[in-house]
Each structure stands twice: as C-alpha cells, then as structure tokens.
Specification:
- This protein has 299 residues and is α/β, with parallel strands linked by helices.
- The chain has ten helices and 13 strands.
- A hairpin with a 5-residue loop joins strand 8 and strand 9.
- The longest helix is centred in the first third of the chain and has 27 residues, at 61-87.
- The termini are far apart.
Amino acid sequence: MKITLEELTAFTAVVDTGSITAAAAQLGQTTSGVSRALGRLEEKLATTLLQRTTRRTELTEEGNTFLAQARKILAAVDDAEEQMAVRRQQPAGRLRVNAAVPYMLHVVVPLVADFRAQYPAIALELNSSDEIIDLLEHRTDIAIRIGALQDSTLHARPLGSNGLRLLASPAYLKAHGRPKNVAALVANHRLLGFTQPASLNRWPVRDADGNDLQITPSLLASSGETLRQLALAGVGVVCLADFLTRTDRAAGTLVQVLPRETLDVRQPVHAVYYRNTQLAARIACFLDFMGARLADHAD
C-alpha cells in the first residue's frame, strides 16, 4: 500500500505540535483519526516513528530520518499546487510568517485585512517569537527580523528601518520630573530595559565619555511590548523602536525624553527566507505588499 498525504500530514503535525491531541486540533480532525493515520503510516513503513507516552511524544531515530523526507514531499505538493494557481494569476497556498510579538501586533496584524483582500487564496499562518528561530525547523516561509542580521545562509529583503526614542508617560514625568541631561537621567530615573541581548540596553544618547549610553536597568523584560506597557503604566523610562510607540506618541500617552540629545540611530528591518531562485509567488507578493506599506508608514 502506498503512503498517503493524509498520513504524512498527520505525522508532521504530531511532531510540530508535540501531541496527537494538539495535531488533531491544528488539522481540524478527530484525535482518533490522526492516531489511525499515524498507525497506518508506521505499519506501511514497518517501523516505529514516534515513541508515545501519556506525557509526551518523541521521535525515534527512524522517525527523525523519515521526517526530513516527509517535509520535502509535503513542500513539493504545496509548490505544485501553487504553480497551478500561478497559471491562474492568483497566488495561493499557506504562507507561514514569523515575527517578534511587538512587531506582529503593531505592524503585521493591522495590515492583514488589506493583504487578505488582495490575495484571498493565500492562507496566512502568523507565529510570534521574541527569539530568533530556525526557519526550516519551524516550517516558516518568512521571518521578519529587526536589527543586524547574523545568519548568512538566509536571503534577506530590506523592509525599512525604525528610529529609537527615549520615552515615558506624562504621569511618570510629572511625578519624577523631566531629566535635563543624560547624567540626570541615569542618576534620578528608573530605566527599564531588556533581559537580552545586551545591545538593546545601549541607548542612543551619549554618556560622559562620549559613548552610547549602556544602561543598568532597574527592571528587565524580555519583550518590547511588556516594556511599552510598563512605560504606559508610569513605571519608568524606556527606549523603544518607533513602530512600537507610534500610536502612543500621537495620543500623547508616551512622550519623548531628551529629544535634543537623542542620536538618529535606526534599527534595520528585514524579511528573511530560504528560497531565492523562482521565489514562490505567495512569498513574493507578501514581500512586495509589506515593502510598499512600510514605506508609506515610515516615521
């Protein structure tokens, strides 16, 4: 008997989600249906692909080897379907996009409705992670990354850049006063920073030695969105990218601190992806759409 796409899909979904129950929810199927598909696949291959316990599911050595081939087969089917859609001049297929939580919420999500209106045949899957992910491992077509790129194996398309500003709420500044210079900022104010990387705690103002100010935060958070909420609550002063605070600045709920001392430091934004030659239509149209929209909304 031949292996079916249903069986391969069930297998990869169980691996990706970590359990048969989660895979069934993702696929919109019953738990028993996914379990039977996985059982048929192991029977046809005459091997155990997954070790299943009541708590978790782990790949066997044979399963790990077969997983790479299963992903290639499913990707080839996706590409074949897309090529047929391209013939009809309508990009289609599933498009998996990853971005840090703040960028996803403040930049990507507001544009989704317009993108879907233009490309209704593309099924978007939006995933968020504040850490850099492996695109192949997470089955991601496009990852949007902020800051300097490190992975030379990826192809990248610039999507613009964002300035950095020191910000605080009016309530915080009323209670603690506006710092008149960098020395006063460091000495008298609560500075909120990132847990990692340390470069995010280097602020675009000069210290006493003429270098970028490396702060020692009084409170740390892993996400820019968390720091934004803390600043809005009047907890302290933050340094955040413009995309994250554009609405707050327009509403006056966050105001800039030391604007004259702030240097014009910009964080580049790139979309990274593995494919380059004959770039998939669904990826190309998303890159074109985002590039045009971000150019229109640049600070």
